[in-house]
Amino acid sequence: MPDSGGSRAQREHIPTSGTGPGADSAPLTPHGDAGALSVDPGAPQVTAPAGLPAAPEAGGLKAARRTGFLVTMVLGGLTALPPLSMDMYLPALPAVTDSLSAPAATIQLTLTACLAGMALGQLVVGPMSDRWGRRRPLLLGMVVYVIATAICALAPSAELLIGFRLLQGLAGAAGIVIARAVVRDLYDGVEMARFFSTLMLISGVAPIIAPLIGGQVMRFTDWRGIFVVLTGVGIVLTLVVWKWLHETLEPGSRHTGGVGEALRTMRGLLADRVFTGYMVTGGLAFAVLFAYISASPFVVQEIYGASPQTFSLLFGLNSIGLIAVGQINGKLLVGRISLDKVLGFGLAVIVLAAVALLLMTTGVFGEVGLVPVAAGLFVLMSAMGVAMPNTNAQALMRTKHAAGSASALLGTSSFLIGAIASPLVGIAGEDTAVPMAVVQVVCAVAAVGCFLGLCRPWQRVGREAGGL
Fold first, then answer.
1. What are phi and psi of 8, to 5 degrees?
2. For residue 81, which of 297, 238, 218 has the smallest C-alpha distance?
């Protein structure tokens, strides 16, 4: 049966302590604007974990929901910044290798550095946003992002480019972590899962147009022009955030402690087995995705001889698949079918696609061309449309008390695991796609194992929206 709000999912997924299992909470029912939720006064109320402030429903949050379209566009822009920073640069990787006279593995470290920066930056910005609110840390991070990106355009060596890409990632982490935290501030339960799918529609446009823009920029200038364009995007987004994104974390819900409290909060979150299970499952799924992102420019262009423009078109087609499945997830599946069931199906498809790619790249099916490999990558990318939003939603539904810290842990795990996977795909050089497929199979199988071993969805049969 469809679920009209976040009621049953809430009762299962929001724990009464940072370390304990899920406990009953207030059922939530829709009211007013689409997606707005109110608390049933007759139901038992959720209490925050010991030592953490409660996060009551406030009039400011209701007002923020009423500007839903604008908030969606701003948050979509923030979540689109990472794929813009990564994917506009992808068609230029071979050119950067030649320009800076560095091996491909070294240039791939520019991707790793940016990912590592985004991972580590979230650990800092997430707790900051729980203490000082969402707006100030976000604006500071955006300003630093603009400066670091501009310097990347001037980098004379691979080493300096790697260093400033690290700084770019550290600063860009603010947009990633705070966008998720704002969603948690405003939405709950099934509505939060739907909002994540909507964000995927907006931010998913970035992977489609970013390689196309990068490929076109490469026709008129060199790879440095890509960073000039990214600098302009960063400036525009900073101005949009400054003018239109209002504070969503009420002063009474902010943490007042320092580093010690932030660490205790994160430790409590990690002690929640199910939260950790969704976090690691999402991180491993992201590693499958990033293995494709970091290896595909060389696989498509160097091994199969495609042009930068052809690579951009294929990359965009894969992103369309991810967006389409994400919208099916948000519009048709969420609220009708258990999030765990949809997530499990998505992970199974990812495993099958990764195994098929491994068989093709190792020659089991003989000599295959670009089309079969591209088809396998399309299926793999499309399945991410249910894996990524549902792992985030399931994890964040377990914590209203520290959305910034929870978002930081989710993002950090994803980007760190992705950063580890990035150099592994190029370990055998530029002439084989086998390392990419091996990394994808290993991470996909590990994601399924983590989902089954830690999340244990069968234990919540009948208690979760839609049932399992």
1. -70, -40
2. 238
Contact 55, 400 (CB under 8 A): yes
Instruction: Tell me the average pLDDT across 86-104.
Output: 82
Rg (CA), the chain: 21
What's phi and psi for 334, nearest 5 deg? -60, 130
- pLDDT over 90, % of the chain: 18
Give φ, ψ of 439 to 5 degrees.
-60, -40
Describe the crossing of helices 104-132 and 403-424 by its angle, rounded to 10 degrees. 180
Interatomic CA distance for residues 95 and 466, integer angstroms: 50
pLDDT band at 259 (very low <50, low <70, confident <90, very high): low
Answer yes or no: are the C-beta atoms of 186 and 409 closer than 8 Å: no
**Identity of residue 336:** R
What single-letter DSSP state applies at residue 90? G
Burial profile 27-61: b = 16 or more Cβ within 10 angstroms, e = fewer: bbeeeeeebbbebeeebeebebbeebbebeebeeb
CA distances from 278 to 329, 397, 451 (A): 17, 11, 7
pLDDT score of 75: 85
Give the chain's length: 468
Q: What H or E segment, with its residue span, contains residue 322?
A: helix 308-328
Residues 309 and 322: their CA atoms lie apart, in Å, by 20
Residue among 64, 119, 88 at smallest CA distance from 212: 88
Q: Could you count the other beta carbons within 10 Å of the beta carbon of residue 239? A: 11
Alpha helices, H only, 153-272: 158-186, 189-203, 205-220, 224-244, 259-271
Model-wide pTM > 0.90: no
The C-alpha atoms of residue 21 and residue 452 are separated, in whole angstroms, by 17
DSSP category for residue 451: I
